[in-house]
């Protein structure tokens, strides 16, 4: 039986363990942290993620999608809250297309259970990766509780140990001609738990992603099963009127929320007390290349960590698993060939998902509150309805298809220009009658098809 | 007496030790390597560097310029060798402006001697930096020969340990919100020693930098005191007609030199035998920020390693010393203030010297063989002669002035456009009579001064 090693039992590592055991490998997973399944996660320590098409595709491929759907809440659109508490709703897609709110902790525990239940995956906890012999498939480990050093050799090694991958840091980054960059954005984030009502009901609509877009910063909220919402405030650390470094007292926190998020403050007047429940965290884009060397490959955040604004970090990591799996079958487990194809195919997508994430921060915090953007979205939704084969909105390409990220990014940019030009050329407004709008769209595609 | 620690006794570390001892510090320098003064450097193991204005300024500030000038050879211009062995000469500046060829080993040994001779600098060799407490000025060390671990605390710490700085890697790079990137260029380099004639005379003109520009690659030669030249071939590793990975046999090396550098091959028909004397090395641009944290600062390559094509790596590092020194005096040794100013002033210059270096590779390997570029240089040299206060060629700003690198870069780009436009608009050619050229230049500045 072939042996595989995985460093990190996070989301991607655990799912990849499922893939590999099903493909006939004996899998050893080494995780630096303690077993989170044996730790009581304190209320509100959960981070929420949005599962979309690519994530589901990988889970369904392993026939575990339905099990995960039980712990996921569909969000069919975004609800924007303005300063006066007025709400605007935008569907994410057509029909029942949705992105799904899942708790990182819940899905991670579930995926570890599923991996272990295959019988051929063993997860060892408290094992820190201190280095690796990339060519020979050896990882060097140190037990964080006993201090005991060990090494483990196998046929193939995968590093799924996240943005600050120890294997990458201690081995890959020391390779000659290894390109690497970590770039922090100006903004950080702090999580806030908005509890359920006393009767357990939700304080906001459940099946939507809530956004308080404020131009340079924003608050978002994703639903949990217990009626609470996990909220996240994204804002510059410093150098702006509203920034984390200005919120240095309870009074300042209260004033800030009263002023810029009044309807949120009404729901959570004790915000200042909950302010320190979660740490202030930073956000970085990490790029590197190559992603493979010898018998070792980087997957997920270890290869292409991104900022969270398109909700694609986990989805991109799960898609790495799908792609690696199909290449493994194509090349009949010849990992040298698999790795070569994998990094060439996936690197442009890793770069693109990062660019998309940065773009979508501006969409979420600013553009969704801009009438021109809302009009643009209305026009493009109608174009997609009338010419589904010709127009596919960028958001949908990213969230509801497996079109490669780099294709979605480039096509999306082109389309943006087309729609903006059409609006400008024909003086389209929100008041333009729908039959007139349809006529303009038919005219545009009529000409395009003729040419 | 205040204590300072320097990690790395390379060029910048040794010079900075001189500055600090003269400013009244007791300085401990820790160097990972053995003492190069006690090792016989095998022939041809020397790397040559080009000292220009900024380097000399720093050395003269410490009154050691004359001592270094004794081991430096002035190069007043560049000599281009074409395929037929024809030569073109371009002066670097006006009058006796020159850049100076120095052996890295020679100048490093000399600077270490000078630092130690002050009586207040001690260099400990074989001491590897394994980590640091940046806030408290503690460095953690391990002796590479005895394995003994130790720590050393002082009032202020400087990391001058080069592109792959151990202090940066083991401490700075682990800081939250530390931006970092290492980007390798497609090209590598291999050194070749062109020996002197049997009678000790030079095989090429001594006081010039020789270039064999070949578009995508180039060979250069810098003079040594013993009549030899240190030559360097810069070329892509792979993926091009001429690349290192194609030169896999002595025959291929011989054919390559015969074909693309025939006059060099005539001087060195045993090139294939010497081919493996030096390793094939890679070239990277390393950017990071911040450059300081707590009591610790990065200087030289540790902060802004560049590719060597403008010959400014050492000069920029020496200028770091000049600037840090003047800020130290300005802020009366209040290092918190010094560091804040230092990184804000120097970061744009670190970025610019890297951009300039990348630009100058294209100039050296390609443009210097292009008639349009030579014409452009002729026109700009005349503009600088006629309007010295108004026109300062980019090469001169970088090499013969202390104008900030980022100013030189931006001003240089603007000027390039001005000259190209003037050439185009007035159909200037190499045949344009000099009085006509002067007239056009006077006309241009006349109009400019009027406006």
Percent of sequence in beta strands of chain A = 15-25%
Tally the structural domains of chain A: 3
Using only CA atoms, what is the Rg of chain A? Answer: 23 Å
> How confident overall, as mean pLDDT of chain A?
95
What fraction, in percent, of the residue positions of chain A are helical? Answer: 25-40%
Q: According to CATH, what is the class of the largest domain in chain A?
A: Alpha Beta
Q: Helical stretch count of chain A?
A: 15
How would you sum up this structure, described in words?
The structure is a homodimer of 451-residue chains. Chain A has 451 residues and is an alpha/beta fold. The first copy, chain A, has 3 domains: 3-71 and 101-182 and 284-360, FAD/NAD(P)-binding domain (3-Layer(bba) Sandwich); 184-281; 370-450, no CATH class. The first copy, chain A, contains 15 helices and 19 strands. In chain A, strand 14 and strand 15 form a beta hairpin. In chain A, helix 1 (11-22) runs parallel beside helix 4, helix 2 crosses helix 10 (313-330) and helix 12 crosses helix 15. The termini of chain A are far apart. The mean pLDDT of chain A is 95. Chain A binds chain B through residues 176-184, 237, 282, 284, and chain B through 176-184, 237, 282, 284.
Short structural description:
The first copy, chain A, contains 15 helices and 19 strands. Chain A is an alpha/beta fold. The longest helix of chain A has 31 residues, at 335-365.
């Amino acid at each position: 039986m072939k042996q595989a090693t995985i460093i990190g039992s996070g989301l991607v590592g655990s799912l990849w363990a499922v893939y590999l055991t099903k493909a006939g490998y004996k899998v050893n997973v080494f995780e630096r942290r303690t077993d989170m399944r044996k730790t009581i996660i304190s209320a509100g320590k959960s981070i929420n993620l949005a599962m979309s098409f690519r994530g589901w595709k990988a889970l369904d491929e392993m026939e575990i999608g339905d099990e995960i759907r039980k712990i996921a809440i569909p969000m069919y659109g975004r609800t924007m809250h303005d300063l006066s508490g007025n709400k605007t709703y935008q569907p994410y897609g057509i029909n029942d297309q949705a992105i799904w709110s899942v708790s990182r902790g819940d899905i991670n525990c579930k995926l570890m259970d599923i991996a272990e239940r295959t019988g051929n995956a063993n997860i060892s906890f408290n094992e820190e990766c201190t280095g690796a012999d990339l060519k020979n498939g050896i990882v060097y480990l140190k037990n964080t509780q006993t201090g005991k050093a060990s090494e483990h050799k196998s046929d193939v090694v995968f590093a799924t140990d996240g943005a600050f991958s120890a294997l990458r840091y201690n081995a890959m980054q020391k390779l000659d001609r290894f390109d690497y960059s970590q770039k922090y954005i100006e903004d950080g984030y702090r999580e806030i738990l908005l509890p359920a009502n006393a009767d357990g009901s939700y304080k906001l609509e459940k099946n939507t992603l809530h956004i308080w877009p404020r131009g340079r910063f924003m608050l978002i909220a994703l639903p949990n099963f217990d009626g609470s919402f996990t909220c996240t405030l994204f804002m510059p650390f410093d150098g702006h009127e509203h920034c984390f470094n200005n919120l240095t007292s309870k009074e300042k926190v209260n004033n800030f929320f009263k002023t810029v998020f009044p309807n949120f403050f009404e729901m959570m007047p004790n915000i200042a007390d909950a302010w320190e429940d979660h740490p202030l965290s930073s956000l970085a884009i990490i790029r590197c290349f190559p992603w493979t060397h010898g018998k070792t490959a980087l997957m997920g955040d270890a290869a292409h960590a991104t900022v969270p604004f398109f909700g694609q970090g986990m989805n991109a990591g799960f898609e790495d698993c799908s792609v690696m799996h199909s290449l493994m079958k194509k090349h009949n487990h010849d990992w040298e060939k698999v790795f070569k194809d994998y990094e060439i195919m996936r690197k442009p997508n890793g770069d693109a998902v990062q660019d998309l994430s940065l773009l979508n921060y501006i969409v979420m915090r600013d553009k969704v509150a801009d009438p021109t953007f809302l009009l643009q979205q209305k026009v493009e939704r109608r174009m997609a309805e009338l010419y589904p084969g010709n127009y596919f909105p960028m958001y949908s390409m990213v969230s509801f298809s497996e079109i490669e990220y780099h294709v979605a990014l480039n096509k999306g940019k082109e389309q943006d220009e087309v729609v903006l030009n059409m609006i400008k050329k024909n003086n389209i407004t929100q008041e333009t009658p729908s039959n007139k709008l349809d006529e303009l769209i038919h005219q545009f595609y009529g000409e395009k098809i003729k040419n």
